Amino acid sequence: MSGIARVLLEMGYKVSGSDTELSDITKRLESMGGRVFKGHSPSNISKDVEVLVYSSSIVKDNPELEEARRRKIRVIHRAEVLGELFNNKKGIAVTGTHGKTTTTSLISVMLKNSNMDPTVIIGGEVRQFKGNAKLGNGPYLVAEADESDSSFLHLRPLYAVITNIEMEHLDHYKTLDDIKASYRSFVGNLKDGGAVFYNQGDANAKDILKDFHGDSESFGLSQDADIYPIAVKMVGFSTTFKCIYKNKLLGKVTLNIPGMHNVLNALATILIGLGLGLDFNAIASSIKNFEGARRRFQLRYSSGGIMLIDDYAHHPTEIRAVLDTCKNWKNKRLVVIFQPHRYTRTKFLADDFGRCFEGVNKLILTDIYAASEKPIKGVSIKNICDKVKANGIADIAIVDKNDIAEYVIRLKRRGDMIVVLGAGDIKKAADDICEKLERRTLDKKLISELKRSAKGQVRVEEPIAPHTSFRIGGASSIWVEPADIADLKRILMFARTHKIPVFVIGNGTNLLVSDSGFNGMMIHLGSPFFKSVRIKGETVRVGAGFSLPKLIKLCCDKALSGLESLVGIPGTVGGAIYMNAGGSANPIYKNIGEVAASLKVMDYSGKIKRLKGEDVKFGYRRSNLGGYIILEAALKLKKHHKDVLNLSCTQFMAIKREKQVLDMPSAGCIFKNPSNFQFTCGQMIDMLGLKGKRMGGAEISPKHANFIVNKDNATCKDVLALAEFIKKKVKENYNIPLEMEVKVI
Ligand SMILES: Cc1cc2nc3c(=O)[nH]c(=O)nc-3n(C[C@H](O)[C@H](O)[C@H](O)COP(=O)(O)OP(=O)(O)OC[C@H]3O[C@@H](n4cnc5c(N)ncnc54)[C@H](O)[C@@H]3O)c2cc1C
Fold first, then answer.
1. Shortest-distance Cα residue to atom 2 of ligand 1
2. Are residues 113 and 153 in contact, defined by beta-carbon separation less than 8 angstroms?
3. Can you name the CATH fold of 663-744?
4. Is the CB of 576 under 6 A from ligand 1?
5. 574 CB within 6 A, ligand 1
6. What is the DSSP string of 400-451?
7. How far apart are CA 29 and CA 23, in angstroms?
8. Residue 509, pLDDT above cutoff 80
């Protein structure tokens, strides 16, 4: 669709359109003067629209289609537009089950390099055209001919290439004979003087040409073909072969896209080139310089012994071809990520999918990409998983597509070839893996620079679970403990310059850290500088890294009152002030904000400020200190009898021990209590009978229902799933939307 839109824009038409997601492609169309809407809506069709063009993936009751019909706007399928453009030129159509995009791209580049200025409309992006289409002044139009829904029957080509014919698109065709009948009609539409170039090794292609009376020539790997290769050598991305045409040696071909299937695509290109009267050396030179199409064995990353390949393969034959090509490299492990495309294909080709992953060491599967199809009962990713397992591949995981990148990053090791396969939206996983890998390469350089400039501790890939009371979470890319204020400032500047996200962590007692960890820098004020305490009269100046329980003990011993009710809160002074930690609504309990006389803070640009206590907005488990790192607090306490204070602490601690869960990993109360409601969270959850409810390793504590505890190696995902479940139940039963008290990062 975007290719056609681009050509129409270049021809001077006014073009608008809509897509479920905006992308680089839609952005490019907009930069050319097109208008692209996100999502489908009748209002996207402006008053002056004369024709509405739709693709095969648009459902019949699409709101824009309905609007066009209502307004009696002409509605046509994209293939009819392509047909109109195509049939007015000398059309070169490339069709077949596999290899269309690469072959169309190779031919297009060859025509461009031969100064024939072709018009081009391709299904994938070609690097040399910076896109998937272009309008040319020359007589030829090269296009991919879509056999999937017989729409290629709108085309009347001068030359046609048939790469191969297999059982595919079974949402449209019923049998292989149906498919072949459609191809027969396609070649029957050839213009006078035209020719068909077909794959000699493909029995179906040969079969449909049996009764064809026009000109045809074949390409293949055996000597039966009109053109075939000898002395094929494959090393990495490079393939070389000698080319024999009608028993004559034409010369040597070098191809910089790997795989035997691409040798066939190159041979088809040579036949078209020869048919157009081009010189063999010019053809070979164009093939040599071909840079490949996007998502066709596209190398996305290669460093530190890890390669990442992204490919559009979604049919078992294509997958086999890609995995065969991987053998050009001597990697230790082949890690494959696959997203099936369409329920119908998954259903009809399930057995084939089961067999096509041979040689894979680790297979990561994700849910089927529907491509506008409705789900089919009993058809899911599990079907493929079971079939693959039955074929002897043991290491398989089914992973949510949004979690794939993190999953891969955790398992990757030197010597891995990571291959992302699929025609749906799995490219996003490849993008994310690539970004994370690049980030880590960058990290290594950055870390040495950071280590040189920082005085305090700098650690890489620091596991965060041990730094939290929940004992949950992956690693932080960088962990720093600044030595002093100047060091903290330097570190913040460094993070800012390199656009590294920063998070300040105290004792980690109010945190739930993602299983994938934190992709950035965690700053912990753990050095002695941030743990100093000075007492003058009734004022205590204490560093933000100092432990709150220790401070409470110290103040009681120094006969200073004000913090006793906070006993048993396991945070740092910084974390407690940020959270305004404290007790329940009962007035005998204090929140720490009430005794904060002033704060010394640093903003994220390194500027130090002093804030008066009354200028800080403290609320229930919150403050407005979001833009600051708390460095030191001055607490205003009151003289009292030491023994009374110690007794008070003991009593508060006894209540806490009785009510709260202090002997299991948790982050304290998971939800904030709703204001002005007769029940606390704990009471509501308890009354719903949810105590003891488990999801994975996470459990609602049988002792205190507002505590989720890490019962058995819980993951962040387990805790979040359980929290969501509680929220849903409470909303359904009490109409109260619960808010998390625990910070999730
Ligand atoms: C068993 C148990 C019981 C608990 N009981 C209570 C309770 O009774 N009352 C209560 O209020 N809480 C309670 N908590 C929760 C928790 O202990 C408090 O919220 C505590 O104040 C968090 O401090 P921390 O240092 O662990 O902060 P973290 O958990 O490390 O961080 C919490 C937040 O503070 C920010 N932060 C930390 N340090 C700084 C800093 N120097 N500058 C700026 N921001 C910073 C972090 O970025 C984060 O947003 C309990 C937790 C547990 C595990």
1. 668
2. no
3. 3.90.78
4. yes
5. yes
6. -GGGHHHHHHHH--TTEEEEEE-SSSTHHHHHHHHHHHHHHHHHHHHHHHHH
7. 10
8. yes
Token pair belonging to 155? 């085309």
Calpha distance 634→640 (Å, rounded) = 18
Backbone angles phi, psi at 306, to 5 degrees: -120, 130
Tokens of 229: 């290769």
Q: Is 509 in the pocket of ligand 1 (CB under 6 A)?
A: yes
Q: What are the C-alpha distances in Å from 620 to residues 415, 577, 584, 631, 735?
A: 52, 12, 10, 22, 21
Question: Positive or negative CA dihedral for 298, 300, 301, 307?
Answer: negative
What is the pLDDT of the chain when averaged over all its residues? Answer: 93
Q: Domain-by-domain residue ranges, the chain?
A: 73-219, 298-438, 444-528, 532-657, 663-744
Fold of 532-657: 3.30.465
What is the structure's pLDDT at 124? 78
Residue 444: how many CB atoms within 10 A of its CB?
11
Per DSSP, the three-state class of 547 is strand
Q: Is the pLDDT of residue 444 over 80?
A: no
Q: Are 272 and 92 in contact (CB under 8 A)?
A: yes
CA-closest residue to ligand 1 atom 28: 508
Q: Is the CB of 708 under 6 A from ligand 1?
A: no
Query: Does the beta carbon of 257 sit less than 6 angstroms from any atom of ligand 1?
Result: no
101 catalytically annotated: yes
Q: Does 298-438 carry CATH code 2.30.130.40?
A: no
What is the arithmetic mean of pLDDT over 197-220?
94
What residue type is assigned to position 273 of the chain?
G
CA of 622 to the centre of ligand 1 (A): 10
User: Ligand 1 centre from 507 Cα, in Å?
Assistant: 7
Q: How far is residue 329's CA from residue 342's CA, in Å, rounded to a whole number?
A: 31
| d(C-alpha 461, C-alpha 703), whole Å | 35
Q: Quick one: pLDDT at residue 330? A: 84
> Is 723's pLDDT higher than 70?
yes
Predicted TM-score (pTM) of the model is 0.59
d(CA 470, CA 8): 58
CATH number of 444-528: 3.30.43.10
Return the CATH architecture of domain 73-219. Answer: 3-Layer(aba) Sandwich (3.40)
Assess contact for 503 and 463: CB atoms under 8 A: no
